[in-house]
Structures are given as C-alpha cells and as structure tokens.
Amino acid sequence: SHHLESDLHFRSSGINAEYGDVRKEISFCRKLRLPVIGLVENMARYECPKCRTVSEIFPATSGGAQALADSEGMPLICSIPVCPQVGQSGDNGVEGLDIPTEYGILVEQVIRFCDG
C-alpha cells in the first residue's frame, strides 16, 4: 500500500502552522512504515480561463510546499492549480477535457513509483 499526501492549503503563519496536519500525516505513515511517494500541493494557483491571468490564491508565508518537502526529505511531485473543469467533469461524467498538465505529471509519478 502506498500513500500520497496532498496539502490542502489552509494557511495561517509559519511552516508548522501551515502544514501541521500534513506533517502529522507524514509522521503517521512513517510510523506504520507506509512509503510516502511525495507531496502534492493542491490549489496552488488559479488561471482565469478567459484572460489566462494566473493568481496565487494562498501565498506561502514560509517557503510553501517545497520547503516542507525539503524539510521532510521527499519530493514535491507537483503543484496542482484550481481547475473547476476537473470537478465538473467528475460530477457530470465528462471525459476528454483540457486539464492542467500537472495532473498528468502526478499520474506519471505514481505509476513510476508503483512500478519501480
């Protein structure tokens, strides 16, 4: 069994406050000897579908997910943007949408880890 940790970005201040729950989950997995593939930063930014302006929704105050990954000695697999189309496609059973490339990166990393 493998575990992939997602950071949900409920931010306050300082890396311990920002990622306290994620650190607890990593610690839990290590205690149970579950391999942790790495971190996935969720809701990292939003790209307007009309004007393509990118906005950082939850600015990091202490180095962000990369700093946490570094301090835990694991990779930051990717930073996934907010993508309403992904939720809508799941809700409506729609396939073949143009989704951010980060989802493909995530899938590739999980497959590589499991195969190897």
Structure, explained:
With 116 residues, the chain is an alpha/beta fold. The chain has a three-stranded parallel β-sheet, sandwiched between helices. The N terminus is likely disordered.
In short:
The chain has about 120 residues and is α/β, with parallel strands linked by helices.
Characteristics:
3-stranded parallel β-sheet, two-stranded antiparallel ribbon, 4 helices, 5 strands
Shape: globular
Beta-strand segment tally:
5
What pattern of helices and strands is seen along the backbone? EHEEEHEHH
Strand fraction: 15-25%
Average of pLDDT: 77
Rg: 15 Å
Q: Distance between termini?
A: 14 Å
Task: Specify the number of helices.
Answer: 4
Largest sheet: 3 strands, parallel
Helix content: 40-55%
Low-confidence stretches: 1-15
- Structural class determined from secondary elements: alpha/beta
Query: What's the quaternary structure here?
Result: single chain
